[in-house]
Amino acid sequence: MQEFSSLDGALLVDKPPGPTSHDVVDAIRRRFGIKKVGHCGTLDPNATGLLIIVLGRGTKLSERLMGDDKVYEGTIKFGETTTSHDSDGEITATRPVPPLSLELLNTEAARFIGDQMQMPPMVSAIKIDGVPLYKLARKGIEVEREARLVHIYNYRFTTCTPPLAEFCVACTKGTYIRSLASDLGEKLGCGAHLTALRRTASGRFDVVDALQLEDILKLPLPELEKRVIPYLRLAASA
Fold first, then answer.
1. How far is residue 93's CA from residue 14's CA, in Å, rounded to a whole number?
2. Catalytic residue among 8, 14, 23, 44
3. pTM over 0.85
């Protein structure tokens, strides 16, 4: 039987706003001297929450884990559209916000539940001819993108204080929540963009079981090993 080390598996990280998912991978690799480190599903720099980091032989499971369904919480601002569909982009238009209520928002959000073809935003990591879209977007270049099939299991709003509203959504991998926010704004006729996003779950893993990145980087190696989900247990859930 193949033997696995205590560092073959996965870490559950609660990513802070600021660093990219790749930055988190690099920080853990450098801090603990682990050669193979990867992640299972990109979070935008200003997004927070669950980032599954795979270590050692655990990297072999990254594609399977990446395919899991996701759950997010976030905040949308209505009345403004941006180049990136979130607050990192430049404002492209402002429009009056109609009277909003939880009932109205949830009625409209329910229309998104199910299968849908979603157009990826230009500010994304998807590559066209080997070039990430966000690099083209920075140059002011917009190219044709193929819409992708995604599935929304649940989409509901929990608070409404116009022009802001908080929501939660459960969806398949590859769903752009920024695009979901923008599309809802267009349906309401006022435009919208995402101002905050937090991933709370991926597959059977939950952010409540994750450690803040800064706390992980302070751990001595023996304590880190205790936090690693072993390869065999990880494989059973993948």
1. 33
2. 44
3. yes
